[in-house]
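User: two proteins, same treatment. go.

Assistant:
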Amino acid sequence: MNGGILGFVILASIANILGGLVIFLKRDWSRRGLNSLMALSAGLLLSIAILDLVPEAIEIHSFSPKFMLLGIMAIFFFQQFVASHFHFGEEIHKERKSKTAVLGSFLGLLIHTFFDGLAIVVSFQVDLRLGITVFIAVLLHKIPDGLTISSIVFVIFQDKKKAVWAATLLGISTILGAVTALALAGVALPYEQITAMAISFTAGIFIYVAGTDLLPAVNAVEDRLVALFFFLGILLYFVLQWGFQTLAPFME
């Protein structure tokens, strides 16, 4: 039984990696292309946070909005009081804020994907149909997660290998969440409350990064074609949702 559950978890983690591999669809990225990726990532982050994480967290527990605010406060504190104390060269210093945004996005997604794996295992332990339903729900945002983090990492570091590794680590985090859930099976833990806190915290980070780092950078370019990619990021989220929902009956 556990082997079968881990099989579903591995499929979900592979979806993270597939999202990261999208970065290889284009050999050379121009500055406009990189800015477009940033706009696309902002649209995906906000879509995942507002349409996926926030409703799920509030449904689990009413205290969730407090942890969304805590997530925003945490990344703001790190950006203002932690990153500002590191010493960078002049050129790197100018990109410090962007690199903090990468770290914030990455940490947020690591937390998110860890609890994806945990949620899949716990739901399968309750009921097979529930497990498949949760697996499909998780799968809906796996490719956008991988695409989002690989895009942000590539824009800042200009390194496709780092971008794909970031998406791969999200997949590994999903597996670690599943293994943790299996290891703690039978131990009385408030899974729902812990999950709601983690989801809310992640949503706060995503909203902050998209709203204060990515979108301002896109606005500064003053390029309407680049700006359109923000809306394409949102549209892509819905297209992927529709695609997986269409395939859902065949996966049960």
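Protein 2:
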Amino acid sequence: MRLKFWMIVKAMVVLVFGIGFVVIPEFVLDLFGMDLDEGGILMSRLFGAAFIFKALLFWLLRNTPTSERPIRVVLISDVVSDAIAFVVTLIATVNGVWNGLGWLPVGLYLVFGLVFAYFFFTKSKS
């Protein structure tokens, strides 16, 4: 398992969601069975901008060795944010805030959080 591969995958996933949230937030969230008012559209676009930032960060750091400090900072920051997002999306999905497609972000946050935790706690020590 190579960190570079996972960083590229994460960059592509969050870029697609980020562009969707910025350009067509009503459509994206309609897929999840959610309606947006003007405030929701604004927050969705800001959320999308954060996703695009994350995509650029992962893409630009994809070739950085796991032993270097910048990648360790990004990895632990992403693990913490993915853990929080996992709990939030899991609660939303279980409570019916959105439809069954809500399991997609739950799974993505879980997988990416575990993968990057693995690289932070094991691979970066070598």
